[in-house]
Amino acid sequence: MTRGDAKDPLVVLLHGRGSRESEIISLADALPSGLSYAAVRAPIAEHGGFAWFANRGIGRPVPASLRATMDWFREWLDEVSPSGRPVLLVGFSGGAAFAGGLLLDDPARFAGAAILYGTLPFEAGVPTDPARLAGVPVFVAHGTHDQVIPRDLLDRTWHYLTVESGAPAIARQDPVGHGIASDALAALAGWLVERADFLTRRSPAVPEPAQWEGLPDGLPSRTGSRPEVSTTIPQQQLTDNAPSELQEKLFARLSTLRDVHSRQSAISVPGARGFMLAAPRSGPAEAFLVPQAGEFAHLHPEFDGSLHVALPVHLAAEAIRHGWAVAHPLAGVRLTPGMVLVYGPRDDAEVDVVSAIVATSHAWATGEASQAAG
Q: Is the pLDDT score of 5 beyond 60?
């Protein structure tokens, strides 16, 4: 079942076990106009693609049947929405597992996905490697009192999507059971509007840095576990923060980048020191956190010590994959798609690496980077 104009971005609604497409299409009444909606009877459930948890009513996808149903869905999608038209997936419960499987299987085909009160199809034959979803925004909603989806799978899904996947993730937990909270539905509507608007305004492909500035051997892997980072706005590093003297050493080094001046960030919390380029600027708008201000990075206040940096998506994915960064929740929704939070340095060697990451952002913003095709 479909609603809307065939030229609008397409939102595909995938329901859970026991529902019908005629029921979930009614969700479109609470979602924004200006988008097209299609409701599909979740093929993973319809074609027997679940091995069901006893007394749970929710299942774990079987690899062979998941592959078959994803192939079936892609054939349908390619007929109703040729490549080039943005497609956003919204899956509830069992439909969330199917939406997650589709997204993980081919991230480039989809403009984003909402995973509502469900789990990703772990161990079902789809890739879940680090930074798999870099540059692809996701919306995640869970109920803290959900008695249908096993808590360990909810927690694993939450961690992967908000940390390891590289996806810019808006994530929320509401005090409800296995049902969509009204506040979550309102937030989803806002997210869909902003993502669709961003897609209509996106720039043509632009040249991007081919390598990291000052790191001839490439980006090394960060040692140790990742620090905790908030999943809310403002995004902040919460643990394993950089010593204040290293923050100042980093700031001093970044202040020497050519044509850079520093002042209060135009986008961040009070006390955040922005790194700005004066006009005219040669780099593309995507190379800036705030294009109007020429701000390509900023250093958070002492209690935090992390940075926000604008990077090309492929380098943002590499920084996430090597443990140096996590995606900003609004990257590709309100902000440049490759915006990441870079963890504050814990020693002099990490000052060198973090400086190189920011220098790469600076080179992109000035138009002086070694270029690769965008």
A: no
Q: What is the pLDDT of residues 29-71, one digit of tens each?
A: 778 888 889 887 654 444 333 333 333 344 455 677 788 889 9
357: domain CATH number is: 3.90.1150.30
The token pair at 173 is 């937990």
- Count of CB atoms situated within 10 Å of the CB of 261: 12
Please give the angle made by the CA atoms of 269, 275 and 281, to the nearest 5 degrees. Answer: 125
Domain holding 327, by residue range, is 208-372
What is residue 371's predicted lDDT score, i.e. its pLDDT?
59
Q: Is the distance from CB of 344 to CB of 307 less than 8 angstroms?
A: yes
Q: Which residues of 134-163 are buried (b: 16+ CB within 10 A; e: fewer)?
A: bbbbbbbbbbeebebbeeebbeebbebbbb
Structure tokens at 130: 């680090």
In 3D space, the residue among 134, 79, 71, 130 whose CA is nearest the CA of residue 98 turns out to be 71
Same domain, 167 and 42: yes
Longest dimension (CA), the chain: 64
* pTM score: 0.88
Burial level of 75, CB count in 10 A (0-12/13-18/19+)? Answer: exposed
Question: Which pLDDT score is estimated for 51?
Answer: 38
